Amino acid sequence: MSLTSGFEHIVRENEPLAAHTSLKLGGAAQYFAEPTSADELVALVKRCADDQIPVRLLGGGSNLLVRSEGVEGCVILLSAPEFSQIKVEGNTMTAGGGAKLSHFIATAAREGFSGPEQLVGIPGTVGGALHNNTGHHGVDFGSWVQSAKVLTRDGQIATRDSDALSFSYRQSSLTELVILEGKFTFDTEPADELTKRMQKLWIVRRAAQPESDENSAYMFKDHGGESASKLIADAGLSGESVGAVHVSDRDPNFFVANPGATSDQVLELMDKVRQQVAERLEIELQDAIQIW
Ligand SMILES: Cc1cc2nc3c(=O)[nH]c(=O)nc-3n(C[C@H](O)[C@H](O)[C@H](O)COP(=O)(O)OP(=O)(O)OC[C@H]3O[C@@H](n4cnc5c(N)ncnc54)[C@H](O)[C@@H]3O)c2cc1C
After folding, report:
1. Domain 84-192 has what CATH class?
2. 100, 162, 207, 289 — which has fewest CB within 10 A?
3. Residue nearest to atom 43 of ligand 1 (CA)
């Protein structure tokens, strides 16, 4: 029986994923679901478990390369308002996994919560940032987490408290199927100071990353205290290209996909950069981007 039967209103077949990623590349998902409530999400995940259909969670697609052949099984997007709520109580903020990171950061600054303003300009969702422990210059998303609500692969909702969670460089122990919600606590600072700092950081970041109309992604992890950007530049690879994909001149740890680019070209350029950094600097770069 097809997954759509019983879930016609939320599941589509053969959905192109390119439009859902920042590289704007890649094939289709066999099934693509946008549940409108937690109950619907749980029912869908249980059905996939029963029918042995693999499930993946898509956030903002800003850290994903989808292969040209696409993905089998069901890709779930938390686009419904129920998954994007942000609530503030005292110095605690609760945010849905589908909430935009930009909304989270702006709300924190407005409420006088310090820290998130340092991540201004990073695209994606709260769920993706928790999964990846997204960060910049030593400020990591995981450092403000008090607890997280998750949905397991067999359809159980559970809460993970901070003492059961661990976050390290671009990694977190939140590997359950769905991160439904995070609860965060912060130090406080005057909101106007945070807003000013955020505006300055936004100007710096905008100049240091690809233009907003360029299709791009952040490719490799830093290595032993050296930024991947510096290592790629030191290996002489700024501006290197394969087909219609090139290493960004602004920051060589970004690849830019120009019109006509393919996922295979991105993979080939990743291999080329990895190999040449290994040959020239004797360093094995690890992928930051996730490949589906
Ligand atoms: C211009 C640009 C600048 C960037 N700058 C930085 C930077 O400075 N620092 C940095 O760390 N990263 C950076 N990134 C990478 C990226 O923005 C972050 O990693 C972001 O947090 C990914 O979130 P997302 O929602 O887009 O996740 P996606 O790319 O959609 O998914 C990434 C992973 O998270 C999982 N996931 C997503 N949502 C959920 C959920 N609700 N529940 C369970 N799993 C989930 C996915 O299954 C996938 O495995 C940048 C990317 C771009 C394009």
Report:
1. alpha beta
2. 207
3. 178
The CATH 3.30.465.10 domain(s) of the chain lie at 84-192
**Residue pLDDT, tens place only, 48-99:** 999 999 999 999 999 999 999 999 999 999 999 999 999 999 999 999 999 9
pLDDT digits (tens, 9 = 90+) for 250-275: 999 999 999 999 999 999 999 999 99
* Greater pLDDT, 148 or 8: 148
- Cα 283 to ligand 1 centre (Å): 24
Q: CATH 3.90.78.10 spans which residues of the chain?
A: 211-291
Q: Choose one of 134, 143, 175, 290 to mutate for the ligand 1 pocket test, by most ligand atoms within 8 angstroms of C-beta.
A: 134
pLDDT at 4 over 80: no
Distance from C-alpha of 263 to C-alpha of 169, rounded to nearest angstrom: 26
What top-level class would CATH report for the domain 11-80? alpha beta
Ligand 1 pocket member 65 (CB < 6 A): no
Looking at the predicted structure, is the pLDDT value of residue 207 above 70? Answer: yes
Distance 124 CA to ligand 1 centre (A): 5
Is 39 exposed, middle or buried (CB count within 10 Å of its CB: 0-12, 13-18, 19+)? exposed
Residues forming CATH 3.30.43.10 domain(s) in the chain: 11-80
Residues with Cβ < 8 Å from 292, sequence gap 6 or more? 17, 26, 56, 64, 65, 66, 67, 71
Active site residue 170: yes
Quick one: fold of 211-291? Answer: 3.90.78
The one catalytic residue among 12, 160, 170, 197: 170
